[in-house]
Amino acid sequence: xxxxxxxxxxxxxxxxxxxxxxxxxxxxxxxxxxxxxxxxxxxxxxxxxxxxxxxxxxxxxxxxxxxxxxxxxxxxxxxxxxxxxxxxxxxxxxxxxxxxxxxxxxxxxxxxxxxxxxxxxxxxxxxxxxxxxxxxxxxxxxxxxxxxxxxxxxxxxxxxxxxxxxxxxxxxxxxxxxxxxxxxxxxxxxxxxxxxxxxxxxxxxxxxxxxxxxxxxxxxxxxxxxxxxxxxxxxxxxxxxxxxxxxxxxxxxxxxxxxxxxxxxxxxxxxxxxxxxxxxxxxxxxxxxxxxxxxxxxxxxxxxxxxxxxxxxxxxxxxxxxxxxxxx
Amino acid sequence: xxxxxxxxxxxxxxxxxxxxxxxxxxxxxxxxxxxxxxxxxxxxxxxxxxxxxxxxxxxxxxxxxxxxxxxxxxxxxxxxxxxxxxxxxxxxxxxxxxxxxxxxxxxxxxxxxxxxxxxxxxxxxxxxxxxxxxxxxxxxxxxxxxxxxxxxxxxxxxxxxxxxxxxxxxxxxxxxxxxxxxxxxxxxxxxxxxxxxxxxxxxxxxxxxxxxxxxxxxxxxxxxxxxxxxxxxxxxxxxxxxxxxxxxxxxxxxxxxxxxxxxxxxxxxxxxxxxxxxxxx
Lengths: 328, 281
Prior knowledge:
The complex is a heterodimer.
Chain A: H1 2-21, E1 23-28, H2 38-45, H3 48-51, E2 54-59, H4 67-72, E3 78-81, H5 83-91, E4 96-100, E5 108-113, E6 128-131, H6 138-147, E7 159-162, H7 168-171, E8 177-181, H8 185-191, E9 199-203, H9 204-207, E10 215-219, H10 220-223, H11 226-248, H12 250-260, H13 268-282, H14 291-302, H15 321-327
Chain B: H1 2-23, H2 30-54, H3 65-74, H4 76-111, H5 113-127, H6 131-142, H7 146-169, H8 174-182, H9 187-221, E1 226-227, H10 231-240, H11 244-272
């Protein structure tokens, strides 16, 4: 009898051990659960976080969630954010620091109807373009500024619409061009029965105005804490392991994302395609931020025209401390 | 910590002054009745300012009122442009169209029992539609500019106005209507001389409810697609840019506009229904 109780107690303690010893990390995503964040879900599902002794909670985002606000309010330890928004937040007095950059390239592009007479960016004036706001408008405004096209409408400028997070304005021809991500909205346009021949796309990457997307950011003040740094090192290491696993097994990774989608809004075909496109963007990054990419992002943003995203080059907005320790 | 203590002291002293004023001999004089809410409001603002500064609350969580005031003063041009786009073009035109249509529908409903049974349930159904569901569809139909915002406002104000007007038109008693009948009054004579005046308090009730709904509708509709101006546009995009002082400045504009709009309709009511018992102040 005593033996049984002891045995049971021991088993209970053993079972509770990993959960009790694991360090908690809260990750706030930039958007809803989808393959765009496949690497994190894979790391969670495949136990990469657990191996590092971490208890990670992934918080999905959405159209009304601004990750910088969440981290400022203490709702997350680390957030996935686009660099323009992170640098803007830094200038607004919220010192975010990039600790890792799993995405090498940008997936952002403008998708236009081929029959509206736009063949090159110089043809934009006089047309209506759909743009996302909430921090995603910065790359667009910088691009228009480098082209010297005003965004107040009229004959010589472009008329900007605040586009919702769907592709209806293009399909209904309320806009000649809309913002799309290679891995998401572009697929939605194709799904609606439009063929690629009917469209012309301009990738920000090709236009030389790409800004870094989906980096991992933490608060500068937290980085002074040794225990926090150690947690982040393990987190980045496991996350990158997850990303590389997702790159190699896109179909399985899409399945894992679907399993984690509490809303049930995502379909398998869409997620498999998204994972394939995301893999192209994460390929070429081992997780460490390339300073040259950072510089290009800052230069693009500083060219923001009359209402620049950032007014001066930021300092200390990124660090290799975490990624160096994580990847070596 | 000093600032926080100061805030608590200020709160208590404001509270004490107001209690003294409200219980004092002059409690019913005009000056005191104006002073009490004024003191309360100023205390709230001062305590907010002191707490935000004292506890080092970051701007992205809650900006101090002084920062909001500075932002407001610096961007009056922008705020005015947003106000014109959302309030004047979107909310006001939708309000006039929606309330007008509802008033005319109410007369139709009143004239025929067939329509009463047919239209009121439909109106009920429309009232139950959630704005977040209808707004994207209306933006799709009417485009991104103010027309779609006006359409959302029409949908929102139509039902409360309709129900209030219909209820108002049945406010008279059978005896009063019979009297009109014995005077050989036509439907319209009876309508204008007896039933419309009797319905006035109800109609104004509908109009007052609709003022707030119109403003909410126009602002929320802009979240679902808009040109690059408008109060809803500015609020939703400034949050993304972490310009929370701008968000609050727009909130101040919305609060002022909403209060003045409601006040204007209430004033109109006093002028139009001065004879009604509820207006004897």
